[in-house]
Design a protein that fits this description.
The chain has 504 residues and is an alpha/beta fold. It is 43% helix and 14% strand.
C-alpha cells in the first residue's frame, strides 16, 4: 500500500460512512490529506487507472475527483508527466487516527477559526457540490446543455410586458407583499396554460410560484423526508434532485432507467422523483402502462410522486402523453414546471402544482425561507406576456425551430465515421443523448481530441449515481445555427479519423 493510499483511504472510507457519494468522498479525502500535510506539495498522485483500482471506483469517478481538485487549485497537471499536489500545508501535525473527516485536526477549521457546521450544514455543503457546473470557459463550438436560445426569443413582446409593469410598479408596491405563493394573475395564467396544453386541471390556490424548479425540489424534500428516509430517484437523473434529497438527510434509492424512462418496481419508499414526459438526461417518454404502474405503487405505499416536467414544452413529434398529474385521482402527485428553459435563462421562475393537503405546508415553508416573493417584476411581466398570448405564440414558433434543428443536428451526428454513438430517440427538448459504443478509454481520447479542436459537450458521467456500463454524452443543439453544426460535426469527424489512423 502506497503512502498516498495510507493517508487517503481511511478518510475516504469515513466520508462514505457519512453518506457521501464515491466521487465526493474521494475528492474530500484527498483534499483533507493535503490540508493536513499528509500529501505534500509536489507529490505525484496516482494515475486515474491506479486510483480507480485502489479505491474500487470507476476511472470516470477518479478523473472527476481530480478535475474538482484541479478546479480548486489543489493539484496541477503536467502533460505527459502526471498529476501533482499543488497545495502547501502550513507547518503542523499530520492527520491523526481520530481525525474528523470533515474537519481533520490541524486543518483550516482549527487554524482559521471557521465555524463548525451542524450535521444539516455539512449535508447541505456536500449536496451542493452536485450542482457545481461551470460554462465560463468559452470555446468556439459549445454543444453543452443549458445554452440559452437567445436569437429566437420575442424580445419586443417581452420588453413591452416588462416596461408596462415597471411603469405601474410604484403604485403597486404592497399588492403582492408577503404573498409567498406568488402573483395571483401569474398563477391563474399557469393554470390556464396547463389545462390547455397538458390536460392538468387545477385551481390557482394549488399553484405556488418558486424561484426556479430547484427551489421547489428542495422544499419538497425538506417537507417530506426525515433523516434516513429513502427516496427513489432516477439513475441516470438530475443531480439537483439528488442534492435536495441528500441535503434533507434522505437516502437515495437509484431506480433503473431504460430507453422508455424509469422502470417501475415496488420500492420500499414513500417518495419518488421522476421525469416522465422527457426523462432526464436520456429523453425517453414514459409509456402509459408505466405511468399507471407508478400511480398504483403510490396508492399501495401511500407515497408521493414528484413529477418534474423540466423540458417537454418544446415538443415537435409524436402525440403528447398525458402527465401523471392529469391522471392522478388520489392526490399523490406534485407537478413541477419551470419557465427558465422556455423564457430567458435569467427569468428564474418555476412553480409547483400541489395536492390540497400539501398547499399550506409548502406555502409556509416557502414563506419561512422567502417571506416576500422575489422577482415580482418578472412575475407580473410574465403574467401579462401569457395573457396577451405571446407565450403561446413563442412556444409554437420554438417547437417548429427546435424540431428542424434537432433533425438537422441528428443527421450530422449520425454520419460520424464508424457510428461511435448509440443515439436515444427524442421528440422534444433541447439536447440529444447518446451512449458510446466503444472502449471507455477511446471516449476519453475522442473527447480530448475534440476539445483541442474547440468542440465540447456535456459528459454523461455527471448524471450517474452508479457506474455506467457505457460512457454517455449529451449534446445541446437548440442554440446552434447550421454553420456551427457543420463546423462542429466536421471537427468531431476529423478527431475520430485521426484516432482511427493512430490505432493502425
Amino acid at each position: 500500500m502506497s503512502g498516498f493510499e495510507i493517508a487517503v483511504k481511511p478518510l475516504y472510507l469515513r466520508f462514505l460512512q457519512e453518506g457521501y457519494g464515491k466521487r465526493d468522498a474521494l475528492y474530500e479525502a484527498i483534499r483533507a490529506a493535503m490540508l493536513a500535510g499528509a500529501v505534500p506539495e509536489g507529490a505525484r498522485l496516482p494515475a486515474t487507472r491506479l486510483l480507480a483500482a485502489s479505491f474500487d471506483v470507476s476511472r470516470g469517478v477518479a478523473a472527476a475527483a481530480y478535475d474538482m481538485l484541479h478546479a480548486e487549485g489543489y493539484v496541477r497537471t503536467a502533460v505527459g508527466s502526471g498529476t501533482y499536489a499543488a497545495y502547501r500545508a502550513p507547518v503542523g501535525g499530520l492527520i491523526k487516527e481520530t481525525a474528523d473527516p470533515v474537519h481533520p485536526a490541524g486543518t483550516e477549521n482549527a487554524r482559521t477559526g471557521k465555524v463548525q457546521l451542524s450535521s444539516l450544514g455539512r449535508r447541505v455543503v456536500a449536496a451542493g457540490r452536485r450542482m457545481e457546473l461551470s460554462l465560463n470557459d468559452r470555446v468556439p463550438y459549445d454543444l453543452r446543455i443549458g445554452q440559452p436560445v437567445i436569437a429566437d426569443f420575442p424580445y419586443d413582446d417581452w420588453k413591452r410586458a416588462v416596461y408596462a409593469e415597471i411603469r405601474r410598479f410604484p403604485g403597486r408596491l404592497q399588492e403582492d407583499a408577503f404573498r409567498a405563493e406568488g402573483h395571483e394573475p401569474l398563477r391563474s395564467a399557469i393554470v390556464r396554460h396547463l389545462v390547455t396544453t397538458k390536460g392538468i386541471r387545477a385551481n390557482p390556490e394549488q399553484v405556488v410560484v418558486t424561484n426556479g424548479s430547484m427551489q421547489a425540489l428542495a422544499l419538497i424534500a425538506m417537507l417530506l423526508l426525515d433523516p434516513g428516509d429513502p427516496a427513489v430517484v432516477e439513475d441516470p437523473g438530475y443531480p439537483g434532485t439528488w442534492a435536495s434529497v441528500e441535503a434533507a438527510g434522505g437516502r437515495l434509492i437509484a431506480a433503473k432507467v431504460d430507453r422508455r424512462g424509469i422502470v417501475p418496481e415496488d420500492w420500499p419508499a414513500r417518495l419518488l422523483f421522476v421525469t416522465p414526459s422527457r426523462q432526464f438526461p436520456t429523453g425517453g417518454v414514459l409509456p402509459m402502462e408505466r405511468r399507471a404502474a407508478l400511480l398504483d405503487w403510490a396508492a399501495r405505499r401511500n407515497a408521493v410522486i414528484v413529477e418534474d416536467d423540466y423540458d417537454s414544452e418544446f415538443r415537435w413529434g409524436g402525440r403528447p402523453v398525458e402527465p401523471l398529474k392529469a391522471m392522478d385521482q388520489g392526490g399523490c402527485v406534485i407537478y413541477i414546471g419551470t419557465f427558465s428553459r422556455t423564457m430567458l435563462r435569467d427569468v428564474r421562475i418555476g412553480y409547483a402544482v400541489l395536492p390540497d393537503g400539501l398547499v399550506e405546508p409548502f406555502r409556509r415553508a416557502k414563506a419561512w425561507t422567502e417571506p416576500h416573493p422575489t422577482d415580482l417584476i418578472w412575475q407580473r411581466a410574465l403574467a401579462r406576456f401569457m395573457a396577451a398570448g405571446a407565450y403561446a405564440r413563442h412556444l409554437r414558433r420554438m417547437q417548429r425551430i427546435c424540431g428542424t434543428r434537432m433533425q438537422r443536428f441528428c443527421e450530422r451526428l449520425e454520419k460520424l465515421p464508424g457510428e461511435p454513438f448509440d443515439w436515444y430517440p427524442s421528440v422534444s427538448g433541447m439536447h440529444v443523448y447518446g451512449e458510446w459504443r466503444r472502449d471507455p478509454g477511446e471516449y476519453d481520447a475522442f473527447r480530448a481530441a475534440c476539445l483541442e479542436r474547440g468542440v465540447v459537450w456535456t459528459d454523461g458521467d455527471r448524471y450517474r449515481l452508479t457506474p455506467p456500463v457505457r460512457r454517455s454524452a449529451m449534446f445541446g443543439f437548440a442554440h446552434l445555427d447550421d454553420r456551427t453544426m457543420d463546423a462542429a460535426a466536421e471537427r468531431m469527424a476529423d478527431a475520430l479519423l485521426r484516432l482511427r489512423s493512430r490505432r493502425r
